[in-house]
């Protein structure tokens, strides 16, 4: 990556973090969640492709603590849905499998995060058909998986590229174009609602969108 691309990637990651800091406010909006998942996948592809083609470069990477907080928050939301479902159906075994707190995920060993999150993901997908009334969606599960993949990469484990549409792209310039198009034409527009309903979130997002040279 050249200097301009590095600055853009830093903006992408700052924007990703701003959205993750407020995930509870948008993860029940299906179109927002789907576009956010695409954005996460593109960032993964940019970082992975840069590492492959420029192994000696100094890449911009996500802040590990921010990514870990994002994993914790998103996992706990799904855990809460599953615990409510288990209580409604008198299923203490399920409740025990998915019971987890954000503090446990923030304070455990880095290598234990995946082990703690995986059962929640698995049970969410196993019970997805029964959780429509609880507003759990496949995209919410993918959002957790993608954030977990980001965290795994930051502690030296391999990423999983889930969206093959982006896996086919190998030119960094094309990936940057995809990310900018997604931000300019979709996510920025979807954020307008928060200008009027949640100014703190909107202002954090707009600050993150600034490219610093």
Q: In words, what does this structure look like?
A:
The protein is an all-alpha fold. Helix content is 70%, strand content 0%. Helix 1 packs antiparallel against helix 11 (199-208), helix 2 (30-53) runs antiparallel to helix 9 and helix 3 runs antiparallel to helix 7 (138-154). The longest helix has 25 residues, at 64-88. The radius of gyration is 17 Å and the shape is globular. It starts with a helix and ends in a 5-residue tail after the last helix. The model has no long low-confidence stretch (mean pLDDT 88).
Low-pLDDT stretches: none
Helix content: over 70%
Distance linking N and C termini: 14 Å
**Secondary structure: number of strands:** 0
Structural class: mainly alpha
What is the overall pLDDT average? 88
Largest sheet data? none
Order of helices and strands: HHHHHHHHHHH
Strand content: under 5%
- Rg: 17 Å
**H/I helix tally:** 11
Shape: globular
Features:
mainly alpha; 213 residues
A few lines on this structure:
With 213 residues, the protein is mainly α. The chain has eleven helices and no strands.
List the helices and strands and how they pair.
Layout: H1 3-20, H2 30-53, H3 64-88, H4 92-98, H5 102-107, H6 113-126, H7 138-154, H8 164-167, H9 172-190, H10 192-197, H11 199-208
């Amino acid at each position: 990556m050249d200097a301009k691309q590095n600055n853009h990637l830093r903006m992408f990651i700052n924007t990703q973090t701003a959205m993750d800091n407020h995930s509870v406010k948008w993860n029940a909006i299906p179109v927002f969640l789907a576009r956010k998942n695409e954005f996460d996948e593109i960032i993964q592809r940019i970082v992975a492709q840069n590492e492959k083609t420029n192994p000696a470069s100094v890449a911009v990477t996500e802040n590990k603590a921010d990514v870990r907080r994002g994993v914790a928050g998103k996992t706990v939301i799904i855990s809460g849905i599953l615990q409510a479902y288990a209580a409604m159906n008198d299923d203490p075994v399920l409740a025990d499998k998915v019971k987890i707190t954000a503090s446990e995920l923030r304070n455990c060993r880095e290598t234990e995060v995946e082990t703690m999150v995986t059962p929640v993901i698995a049970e969410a997908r196993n019970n997805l058909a029964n959780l429509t009334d609880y507003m759990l969606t496949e995209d919410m599960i993918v959002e957790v998986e993608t954030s977990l993949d980001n965290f795994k990469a930051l502690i030296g484990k391999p990423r999983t590229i889930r969206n093959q549409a982006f896996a086919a792209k190998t030119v960094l310039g094309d990936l940057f174009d995809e990310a900018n198009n997604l931000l300019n034409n979709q996510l920025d527009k979807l954020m307008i609602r928060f200008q009027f309903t949640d100014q703190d979130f909107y202002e954090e997002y707009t600050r993150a969108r600034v490219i610093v040279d």
